[in-house]
Amino acid sequence: MTPALRARTEGLVTAELTVAAGEVVAVVGPNGAGKSTLLRALAGLPGPARAAVAIDGRPVGHLPPHARRVGYVPQDGALFPHLTAARNVAYGLRGRGGSRAEARRTAHDWLARLGLADLAGRRPGQLSGGQQQRVALARALAAEPRLLLLDEPLAALDVETRAAVRHTLRSHLGPYDGACLIVTHDPVDALSLAGRMLVVEDGAIAQDAPAAEVTRAPRSAWVARMLGLNAYEGVADGTGIRIRDGGHTLSTAEPVPAGPVLATVHPDHVTLHRERPEGSARNTWPGTVAEVTGTGTRLRVTVRGRGGPDVVAEVTAAAAAELGVGEGLPVWVGVKATGVGVTAL
Ligand SMILES: Nc1ncnc2c1ncn2[C@@H]1O[C@H](COP(=O)(O)OP(=O)(O)OP(=O)(O)O)[C@@H](O)[C@H]1O
Fold first, then answer.
1. What CATH topology corresponds to 228-344?
2. 10: phi then psi, degrees, rounded to nearest 5
3. Using CA positions, which residue lies closest to atom 29 of ligand 1?
4. Which residue range or ranges hold the ABC transporter domain (predicted)?
5. Which comes out higher in pLDDT, residue 281 or 43?
6. How far is ligand 1, taken at its centre, from the CA of residue 13, in Å?
7. Which of 43, 61, 47 is nearest to 12 (CA)?
């Protein structure tokens, strides 16, 4: 089947990308990695990268952005402040032909679908951040794009609005049959909205795989940490892994073929102790508690390692209370060899 999107970019971001119709791809990566640049290049907007793009098999490089059937929602939504919500959405229909009355009807229809029927006459300044975001989404979707590009659509929202807009987005992306790319920094957004993750680092694709595979075997320390794991780049030497930063060694349960690797440790697999632990943990080292975060029944404890790497442990509130965990507390860290995940790089 013809993919909805086939693209090759050059310049600040070099990437080759094929996205199937109906596929939602989360674009993740550190600040400044080139995620927005990638989206802008795909949309045909000016920037430090250019893209050769085919949509539904048809090259669109010669077409201006509005004629490409691309819906692009930048980080700030970019609504026109002097136009009402309805006219903002109708504006997105420009270039599709049809009468103004039709455009108005379609705009109202989309605003209603996104729960904004009553607010159609308001200007962006009279709407909350979440409402503005939904108007921007309505404007993009109303034009029935074959490629939908969303740059951090939920980033500016507070936690509650975020959950509501995420839900709206999910319900509209489900039946959407074009290609969709969503830039996000949030693992919840990435995993709940997208089936595939594109990890961008330093202007190149570090990993492009189903989300489940990226969570199971992340290929970059950045994405592993985004997913909440401890991550260490290093070199396997047959018996263990020598970590690049600090030169410490982690023992693994199985011998790992020699070569560069990414070692990951789930915070659940890290135990904290007052004394050096006896028993089954093959990896033990001392450290000092640097930070305690989280609330409720589980806490995340960051330990600065001495003789071993820095590590985050997730412990129950009860265990934390028993240890007397607090910043500055000297502790021993334990990680079983079976708790060390390894991805060859
Ligand atoms: N027009 C431009 N000319 C030259 N460099 C640019 C231009 N626009 C952006 N950059 C630089 O390109 C790099 C990538 O920027 P980009 O906004 O694509 O990153 P990003 O991954 O989206 O980051 P963030 O997560 O912070 O939004 C940055 O270092 C940025 O300063």
1. OB fold (Dihydrolipoamide Acetyltransferase, E2P) (2.40.50)
2. -140, 165
3. 32
4. 7-227
5. 43
6. 10
7. 47
